[in-house]
Amino acid sequence: MTEWMVTIDTAHGVAHDEEVLLAFTAAIDGIRGLTGAGTSLNTGTGVLSATFSVAAADVQHGVDEAVTLFTAALGRLGLPPGSVTHVEAESLEEREPVPA
After folding, report:
1. In a 3-state reduction of DSSP, which class is residue 79?
2. How much is the mean pLDDT over the chain?
3. pTM of the model
4. Is beta strand 97-98 parallel, antiparallel or unpaired with respect to 84-91?
5. 82 pLDDT exceeds 90?
6. Cα torsion at 68, 70, 73, 79 (round to 10°)?
7. Could you report the per-residue pLDDT of 38-62, keeping only the tens digit for each?
8. In what order do the strands lie in the sheet with 2-10?
9. Do residues 47 and 10 touch, judged by C-beta distance below 8 A?
């Protein structure tokens, strides 16, 4: 197993206020096995982002798991799960970016 640091962004216009960011952070943190997630919101564009690590056999499985967790957090808030537009993964062992 390899640890992957994954960053995921939503489409523009998903959220625009800090209350949504706080609820999104709580939803991410509430998902089993997900600790230490960093979340952010660009209030100008409405893009929610999260960065967190997952353990997986390869980058594709890591990205799949991370996107599943991310969309579950969006779903808890009633936000559209199909709004993921950008995913980036990096091996924590190699510390080199890996295209997802």
Report:
1. coil
2. 89
3. 0.87
4. antiparallel
5. no
6. -100
7. 999 999 999 999 999 889 999 999 9
8. 38-42, 47-56, 2-10, 84-91, 97-98
9. yes
